[in-house]
Design a protein that fits this description.
This protein is an alpha/beta fold. It contains 24 helices and 29 strands. The protein has four domains: 321 residues, Rossmann fold (3-Layer(aba) Sandwich), CATH 3.40.50; 202 residues, Rossmann fold (3-Layer(aba) Sandwich); 120 residues, 3-Layer(aba) Sandwich (Rossmann fold); 73 residues, Alpha-Beta Plaits, CATH 3.30.70. It is 39% helix and 18% strand. It holds the Pfam family Glyco_transf_20.
Length: 779
């Protein structure tokens, strides 16, 4: 099974005609009767994407989930798009309680096309998502009928959301709190925008949690053993963890279609840890580029103190795999579409209209990250630096509609007006600016007649316009100019790659593209086309969905080699029926202390400020107070550090420094017994010299000498640098000093310890068993 939401960008009409993204429309016909001859319906689509969760499986469920009485995505308005204008009126003034369903052209069209491209090879699939319209006020039986028809005829399951839930989740949290930092924007947010820390921000975060939980519950209801779940994009980042709690053995993949920023940006989010933990509920996390994957791994290391490896993130529950899976296009369908008569006719019209001119093409959503303004500034510089091209070139810029209010449109209009005033003539317009959605036929025609395509994204997940442009250039092989901040950049080495902030560099790239020889054009295009034709939409879906169960199985086998988790029922029955019970509790102090410091944790206990530990230590005290229980705390900490725990409960025994010392339970607790036969610590001086060397190179780390060993603690140092230094230090000691002294190195969580080779927790446990073997414990 797989789950996804769609991208926010409004694409041209999809070249896939399958109705996998249905929208619900009011209609005079019954819900089950679709009237294809009916006039164009009033669309109930909000100007935002629908979120979809889909999964493939052998059979659909026999039951349907209980439905809520509302499906909503904002204020209940009807929207009808005419150019860039939205006309609205109250839906329920005129709409009857009968409906029909039609395809919805909004959303992540690239993802929809990719999944459709392999629909005959993946068995059955089920999309789970919110509807692209508000259904607030609809009777529950109407919602039930809609849900039945969506599942029966479209393999879709709706998640019914209230208007405030959709608004808080999408408009406030997704668009204001998440989308901007994920695209490297940390601009000031006005009050009420949902920024974390404000009252509205808290509400938006709670709505985000609630919507993600509703998606997880809906998916879990329909899940069957063997299903593969595919969760998509930043709208549903908490769903993997919720699903893991509901279906522990589920095969879950999560794919992020937009960029993942550096840790220095992501750490600014107040909810950063919860979001990362939510993603880490998956077996596999996919990204468009290696850079995004590397940023995620480093962020998990720095913010969660988890170890990152080339394969993924090592969590308490096993390895979460990460991978790079660049999305592509369905080349076969695109080629079929671009050879249709309507497209060929439009190509002829455009060539006639722009006779004698070189054509530069740009097509972007006019928001802050697509770089439309930077593109126009570079074009202005090009005309200034190369006056010989004035009157001989035209930039056709298509700016797709955006529902987000921004001042970028005014800035873009100002630059276009300035270019026209500086360089335009009665016979020549330097820029043809189309601030509207164009048909897919018109779009393909523009890509075909272009002499160069100009993509100047400031941040972009992938940008499939570049793929489509290469596909449309099979006859002319004209060059592509692409920003180094687009996801495609790393894969398109044969493109003219530019920094969109460097205006002169982009201007020079335009000149190079227009003056490039035919031989060089063909060579560059051939390399680009090989990539596009190999890394298709089909390859993207098959690779990712095939990898999910493989990673799940690999992680399951890894976990099966370790101690299995005990079932609650079995533990309870064994506990109740046992006459004597021995508990050996292995204590990693930092797993209990949010500060990561044992001293801080013990200070909190001593001074009564340990809010995070209260429940844990109350449970420890109750467990040890039962006369049938024998409780020992086993730890790497020193005797003095562990003795503080006696303030929590006087009925526990202690085992310090990896089993070197044991304090058996007695009424006095005044006797520590040594488990070591050899107390020669001549090796300490040499080890301290090595550890001091690495401490000097690792700011934030500290070396602590203990009675039997030496600890190098780097919990407060930079995670990536210190982890690398710890491995170097371990190799240094193991390859030199360990050959001369009876020591070995223990590499733990954010710490490295050097201890005598004859330290053995097993000997300590044997001593404890022998001590308590004789009958009942005395109190």
């Amino acid at each position: 099974m797989a789950a996804w939401p769609a991208d926010t960008s409004l694409q041209p009409e999809s070249f896939n005609t399958d109705a996998i993204s249905p929208s619900v429309f009011p209609d005079s016909e019954d819900l089950d009767g679709i009237n294809p001859a009916a006039p164009e319906p009033v669309r109930l689509e909000k100007p935002q994407e629908s979120r979809y969760a889909s999964f493939s499986r052998r059979s659909l469920p026999r039951r349907r989930p209980s439905q809520r009485s509302h499906t909503s995505s904002g204020t209940p308005n009807v929207f009808q798009r005419k150019g860039s204008l939205l006309r609205q009126r109250s839906l329920y003034e005129t709409a009857p309680q009968t409906w029909r369903i039609e395809p919805l052209r909004l959303g992540n069209i690239g993802l929809q096309n990719a999944v459709n491209a392999v629909r005959h090879r993946v068995g059955q699939r089920l999309w789970v998502g919110s509807l692209g319209t508000s259904t607030a006020g609809l009777a529950s039986n109407v919602c039930d009928r809609i849900a039945k028809k969506l599942q029966r005829d479209f393999s879709c399951v709706p998640v019914y959301l209230a208007d405030d839930e959709m608004d808080g989740h999408y408009n406030q949290f997704c668009k204001q709190v998440l989308w901007k930092p994920l695209h490297y924007q940390l601009a000031f947010h006005p009050s009420g925008s949902g920024i974390a820390g404000t009252t509205s921000g808290d509400k938006a975060w709670h709505h985000y949690i609630k919507v993600n939980r509703l998606f997880a519950e809906t998916i879990a209801f329909h899940h069957r053993p063997g299903d593969v779940i595919w969760v998509n994009d930043y709208h549903l980042m908490l769903v993997p963890q919720f699903l893991r709690e509901l279906i522990p053995d589920a095969q879950i993949g999560f794919f992020l279609h937009i960029p993942f920023p550096s840790s220095e940006i992501f750490r600014c989010l107040r909810t950063r840890e919860q979001i990362l933990r939510g993603m880490l509920g998956a077996d596999l996390i996919g990204f468009q580029t290696y850079g995004y994957m590397r940023h995620f791994q480093m962020t998990c290391s720095r913010l969660l103190s988890l170890e990152s490896t080339p394969k993924g993130i090592q969590t308490e529950m096993g390895l979460v795999s990460t991978g790079m899976f660049p999305i592509g296009i369905n080349l076969d369908v695109l080629n079929e579409k671009r050879n249709q008569p309507a497209v060929l006719e439009e190509i002829a019209n455009l060539r006639q209209r722009f006779t004698g001119l070189k054509i530069l093409i740009g097509r972007d959503k006019n928001d802050y990250v697509k770089g439309v303004r930077q593109k126009l500034l570079a074009y202005e510089r090009f005309l200034q630096d190369h006056p010989e091209w004035q009157g001989k070139v035209v930039l056709v810029q298509v700016s797709l509609s955006t529902v987000e209010a921004n001042e970028n449109e005014t800035q873009v209009s100002n630059v276009i007006a300035r270019i026209g005033l500086r360089f335009g003539t009665i016979d020549w317009r330097p820029v043809v600016y189309l601030h509207q959605d164009i048909s897919f036929q018109h779009y393909l025609a523009l890509l075909t007649v272009a002499d160069a395509c100009l993509i100047t994204s400031l941040r972009d997940g992938m940008n499939l316009t570049s793929h489509e442009y290469i596909a449309c250039q099979q006859a002319t092989h004209n060059p592509l100019i692409i920003s180094e901040f687009a996801g495609t950049y790393g894969n398109f080495g044969a493109a003219l790659r530019v920094n969109p902030w460097h205006t002169r560099e982009v201007a020079n790239a335009i000149h190079e593209a227009l003056t490039m020889s035919e031989e060089e054009k063909l060579s560059r295009w051939g390399e680009l086309y090989r990539y596009v034709s190999t890394n298709t939409a089909q390859a993207f879906v098959e690779k990712f969905t095939n990898e999910i169960p493989r990673m799940h199985e690999e992680n399951r086998h890894t976990l099966s080699g370790s101690a299995p988790l005990l079932r609650d029922e079995e533990v309870h029955d064994a506990y109740v029926n046992a006459h004597r019970r021995l508990f050996l509790l292995d204590w990693d102090s930092r797993s209990l202390a949010p500060s990561g410091s044992l001293d801080n944790m013990l200070g909190e206990i001593t001074h009564g400020n340990g809010h995070h530990q209260d429940a844990l230590f109350r449970a420890l005290d109750r467990l040890a107070a039962d006369p049938q229980n024998i409780v020992y705390v086993m730890s790497s900490n020193t005797k003095a550090e562990l003795e503080v725990l006696l303030e929590v409960s006087p009925y526990i025994g202690l085992c310090a420094e990896h089993g070197a010392f044991v304090n058996v339970y007695s009424t006095s607790h005044d006797s520590w017994e040594t488990m070591l036969n050899d107390m020669d610590f001549a090796w300490k001086r040499s080890v301290l010299d090595v550890l001091d060397f690495y401490s000097d190179r690792t700011p934030g780390s500290v070396t602590v000498e203990r009675e039997t060993g030496i600890l190098w603690d780097y919990s407060n140092a930079d995670p990536n640098w210190s982890q690398w230094q710890a491995k170097e230090c371990m190799n240094h000691i193991s390859n030199t000093l360990a050959n001369s002294f009876p020591i070995h190195v223990l590499l733990g969580k954010r710490r490295l310890e050097v201890v005598p080779r004859n330290i053995d927790k097993g000997l300590a446990v044997r001593h404890i068993l022998e001590h308590h073997h004789a009958g009942e414990r005395k109190r």
